[in-house]
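S.,

Sequence below, as promised.
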Amino acid sequence: MGLLDSLAKNVLGGMLGGNSGGQQQDPAAMLSGLLNQSGGLQGLMGQFQKAGLGDQFSSWVGTGENQPVNADQVQNALGGDAIQGLASKLGLNAGSLTPLLAQFLPLVIDKLTPKGQIEQNEPGADQLQNVLGSVMKDGGGLGGLLGGLLGGAK
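The prediction came back faster than expected:
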Protein backbone atom coordinates (compact mmCIF):
# COMPACT_ATOMS: atom_id res chain seq x y z
CA MET A 1 0.00 0.00 0.00
CA GLY A 2 2.99 2.33 0.50
CA LEU A 3 3.63 2.54 -3.24
CA LEU A 4 -0.04 3.30 -3.92
CA ASP A 5 -0.07 6.00 -1.23
CA SER A 6 3.09 7.57 -2.63
CA LEU A 7 1.71 7.52 -6.17
CA ALA A 8 -1.62 8.94 -4.97
CA LYS A 9 0.19 11.79 -3.18
CA ASN A 10 2.16 12.56 -6.33
CA VAL A 11 -1.01 12.58 -8.43
CA LEU A 12 -2.73 14.83 -5.89
CA GLY A 13 0.28 17.10 -5.66
CA GLY A 14 0.59 17.39 -9.42
CA MET A 15 -3.12 17.98 -9.82
CA LEU A 16 -3.06 20.80 -7.32
CA GLY A 17 -0.17 22.68 -8.80
CA GLY A 18 2.66 20.49 -9.96
CA ASN A 19 6.29 20.47 -9.06
CA SER A 20 8.65 23.41 -8.96
CA GLY A 21 12.18 22.67 -10.03
CA GLY A 22 11.54 18.96 -9.71
CA GLN A 23 10.73 19.22 -5.99
CA GLN A 24 7.34 18.23 -4.56
CA GLN A 25 5.47 21.24 -3.18
CA ASP A 26 3.33 21.21 -0.06
CA PRO A 27 -0.08 19.89 -1.20
CA ALA A 28 -1.89 22.37 1.07
CA ALA A 29 -0.02 25.24 -0.59
CA MET A 30 -0.94 23.87 -4.01
CA LEU A 31 -4.62 23.60 -3.07
CA SER A 32 -4.47 27.12 -1.72
CA GLY A 33 -3.03 28.28 -5.04
CA LEU A 34 -5.81 26.57 -6.97
CA LEU A 35 -8.45 28.21 -4.77
CA ASN A 36 -6.76 31.62 -4.99
CA GLN A 37 -6.64 31.32 -8.76
CA SER A 38 -10.41 30.76 -8.74
CA GLY A 39 -11.22 33.51 -6.23
CA GLY A 40 -11.53 31.17 -3.26
CA LEU A 41 -14.44 28.83 -2.63
CA GLN A 42 -16.94 31.57 -3.52
CA GLY A 43 -15.17 32.16 -6.83
CA LEU A 44 -15.06 28.46 -7.60
CA MET A 45 -18.77 28.23 -6.79
CA GLY A 46 -19.42 31.14 -9.14
CA GLN A 47 -17.60 29.37 -11.95
CA PHE A 48 -19.75 26.28 -11.47
CA GLN A 49 -22.92 28.38 -11.25
CA LYS A 50 -22.09 30.13 -14.53
CA ALA A 51 -21.67 26.71 -16.13
CA GLY A 52 -25.16 25.69 -14.91
CA LEU A 53 -23.74 23.50 -12.14
CA GLY A 54 -24.77 25.51 -9.10
CA ASP A 55 -26.94 22.70 -7.73
CA GLN A 56 -24.06 20.24 -7.93
CA PHE A 57 -21.63 22.61 -6.23
CA SER A 58 -24.20 23.42 -3.55
CA SER A 59 -24.58 19.70 -2.85
CA TRP A 60 -20.83 19.46 -2.21
CA VAL A 61 -21.06 22.34 0.26
CA GLY A 62 -24.24 21.00 1.87
CA THR A 63 -24.43 18.17 4.36
CA GLY A 64 -26.29 15.75 2.10
CA GLU A 65 -25.04 13.48 -0.63
CA ASN A 66 -22.67 14.98 -3.20
CA GLN A 67 -24.15 15.21 -6.69
CA PRO A 68 -21.76 14.00 -9.36
CA VAL A 69 -20.34 15.95 -12.26
CA ASN A 70 -18.75 14.60 -15.38
CA ALA A 71 -15.55 15.55 -17.13
CA ASP A 72 -17.26 17.78 -19.71
CA GLN A 73 -19.04 19.72 -16.96
CA VAL A 74 -15.77 20.29 -15.10
CA GLN A 75 -14.15 21.42 -18.34
CA ASN A 76 -16.95 23.94 -18.92
CA ALA A 77 -16.83 25.24 -15.35
CA LEU A 78 -13.07 25.63 -14.96
CA GLY A 79 -12.22 26.50 -18.53
CA GLY A 80 -9.85 24.95 -20.99
CA ASP A 81 -6.83 27.05 -20.01
CA ALA A 82 -7.05 26.08 -16.34
CA ILE A 83 -7.52 22.40 -17.19
CA GLN A 84 -4.65 22.46 -19.66
CA GLY A 85 -2.37 24.18 -17.14
CA LEU A 86 -3.09 21.56 -14.49
CA ALA A 87 -2.77 18.73 -17.01
CA SER A 88 0.62 20.01 -18.17
CA LYS A 89 1.90 20.10 -14.60
CA LEU A 90 0.79 16.49 -14.17
CA GLY A 91 2.17 15.32 -17.49
CA LEU A 92 -1.32 14.30 -18.65
CA ASN A 93 -3.59 15.41 -21.40
CA ALA A 94 -6.71 17.35 -20.44
CA GLY A 95 -8.89 14.39 -21.42
CA SER A 96 -7.24 12.29 -18.72
CA LEU A 97 -7.35 14.98 -16.05
CA THR A 98 -10.96 16.12 -16.28
CA PRO A 99 -12.46 12.79 -15.11
CA LEU A 100 -10.07 12.88 -12.16
CA LEU A 101 -11.14 16.42 -11.28
CA ALA A 102 -14.80 15.41 -11.63
CA GLN A 103 -14.27 12.86 -8.85
CA PHE A 104 -11.81 14.86 -6.75
CA LEU A 105 -13.43 18.29 -6.46
CA PRO A 106 -16.66 17.12 -4.78
CA LEU A 107 -14.60 15.37 -2.07
CA VAL A 108 -12.41 18.37 -1.33
CA ILE A 109 -15.25 20.92 -1.38
CA ASP A 110 -17.34 18.64 0.85
CA LYS A 111 -14.54 18.37 3.40
CA LEU A 112 -13.81 22.11 3.30
CA THR A 113 -17.44 22.82 4.22
CA PRO A 114 -18.31 20.33 7.00
CA LYS A 115 -21.12 22.48 8.43
CA GLY A 116 -22.91 22.77 5.09
CA GLN A 117 -21.82 26.30 4.28
CA ILE A 118 -18.75 28.20 3.15
CA GLU A 119 -17.38 29.61 6.40
CA GLN A 120 -14.00 30.63 5.02
CA ASN A 121 -13.67 31.68 1.40
CA GLU A 122 -9.92 31.10 1.55
CA PRO A 123 -9.22 28.32 4.06
CA GLY A 124 -6.02 28.48 6.08
CA ALA A 125 -3.05 26.19 5.63
CA ASP A 126 -3.96 24.04 8.66
CA GLN A 127 -7.51 23.49 7.41
CA LEU A 128 -6.27 22.61 3.93
CA GLN A 129 -3.73 20.18 5.37
CA ASN A 130 -6.46 18.50 7.44
CA VAL A 131 -8.76 18.21 4.42
CA LEU A 132 -6.02 16.70 2.29
CA GLY A 133 -5.16 14.22 5.03
CA SER A 134 -8.81 13.23 5.28
CA VAL A 135 -9.17 12.82 1.52
CA MET A 136 -6.02 10.67 1.49
CA LYS A 137 -7.51 8.35 4.13
CA ASP A 138 -10.95 8.03 2.55
CA GLY A 139 -11.62 4.58 1.18
CA GLY A 140 -13.24 6.09 -1.89
CA GLY A 141 -10.82 9.00 -1.94
CA LEU A 142 -7.54 9.09 -3.76
CA GLY A 143 -7.28 5.33 -4.07
CA GLY A 144 -10.47 5.35 -6.14
CA LEU A 145 -9.35 8.42 -8.05
CA LEU A 146 -5.99 6.88 -8.79
CA GLY A 147 -7.71 3.70 -9.94
CA GLY A 148 -9.83 5.76 -12.30
CA LEU A 149 -6.78 7.57 -13.62
CA LEU A 150 -4.99 4.28 -14.22
CA GLY A 151 -8.02 2.73 -15.92
CA GLY A 152 -9.42 0.78 -12.96
CA ALA A 153 -13.06 0.45 -12.06
CA LYS A 154 -14.77 3.16 -10.04
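The radius of gyration is 14 Å.

Coffee later?
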